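Progress note, sequence design subtask.
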């Protein structure tokens, strides 16, 4: 009888360990509950107090380097995003994310002395509150070795459909729109105008990323993290356009884990010297390390 009880206790303990292990990874991202800490990108970071103000999600962040003697991701590069069944990714650089949110009196995320991350991150606008299941974090500058695949994204074509064998994802362009820095929109006819491509400019790319969820799960676990899409060249905020500031030049492919298929529709911006930003733009698919905090 004692042997049976011991066996049951062991199985129960192992089952708990198994559930914990499953909860620690969503598409290779370290996973914790809101209010808990996670070690990622050289930071020991806690995300807590998820709440809504108007149409924005606010969360409080507190972090310190995991080991002060070792390198960690630059606080200015850290991005946060909403996890869940969203129609479109919703991300922002943590520092400065609350600057343009009206009627919000919070201490926005800051990095005093570069040795700590503390304050509030604002993500939105988003009206569908039921879609949000948590918040994730990553850095576009963090790359898992031997996972980079780069593709030309020239105006007006964008990215031709990629091969799944390259990275496990099929990425294709759904829309392309380009402007000069003065706000003049460019068309295919502009390619014949010798004066159109001078100075600075920017381009907005609509992209779809698709694959089978089970395959993406296995690939991400083996890789050590999910994939991200990176568009280059880019400029630091505020950039050349409010649209570029809103969409950014990167997006993490971290959809709701319960879905049978991975389908992410994102918009990315390239900006800078107009020839580089429009005619020689690049979209890369890259593996990265990430952390996720869930509401359940």
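Output:
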């Amino acid at each position: 009888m004692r042997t049976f009880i011991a066996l049951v206790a062991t199985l129960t303990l192992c089952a708990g360990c198994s559930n914990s292990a499953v909860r620690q990874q969503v598409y290779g991202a370290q996973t914790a509950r809101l209010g808990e800490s996670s070690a990622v990108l050289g930071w020991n970071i806690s995300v807590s107090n998820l709440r809504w103000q108007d149409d924005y999600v606010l969360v409080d962040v507190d972090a310190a380097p995991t080991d002060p003697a070792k390198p960690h991701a630059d606080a200015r590069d850290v991005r946060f995003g909403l996890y869940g069944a969203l129609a479109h990714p919703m991300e922002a650089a943590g520092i400065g994310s609350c600057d343009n949110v009206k009627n919000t009196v919070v201490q926005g995320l800051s990095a005093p002395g570069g040795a700590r991350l503390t304050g509030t991150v604002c993500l939105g606008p988003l009206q569908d509150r039921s879609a949000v299941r948590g918040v994730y974090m990553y850095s576009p500058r963090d790359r898992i070795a031997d996972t980079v695949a780069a593709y030309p994204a020239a105006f007006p074509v964008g990215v031709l459909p990629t091969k799944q064998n390259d990275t496990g994802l099929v990425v294709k362009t759904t829309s392309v729109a380009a402007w000069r820095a003065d706000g003049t929109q460019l068309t295919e006819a502009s390619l014949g105008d010798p004066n159109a491509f001078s100075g600075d400019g920017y381009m907005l790319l609509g992209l779809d990323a698709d694959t089978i969820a089970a395959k993406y799960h296995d690939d991400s676990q083996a890789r050590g993290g999910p994939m991200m899409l990176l568009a280059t060249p880019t400029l630091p905020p505020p950039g050349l356009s409010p649209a570029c500031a809103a969409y950014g030049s990167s997006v993490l492919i971290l959809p709701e884990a319960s879905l049978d298929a991975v389908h992410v529709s994102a918009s990315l911006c390239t900006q800078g010297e107009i020839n580089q930003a429009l005619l020689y733009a690049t979209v890369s698919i890259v593996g990265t390390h990430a952390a996720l905090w869930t509401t359940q």
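The chain is about 15% helix and 40% strand. Work on this subtask will continue into the next period as scheduled.
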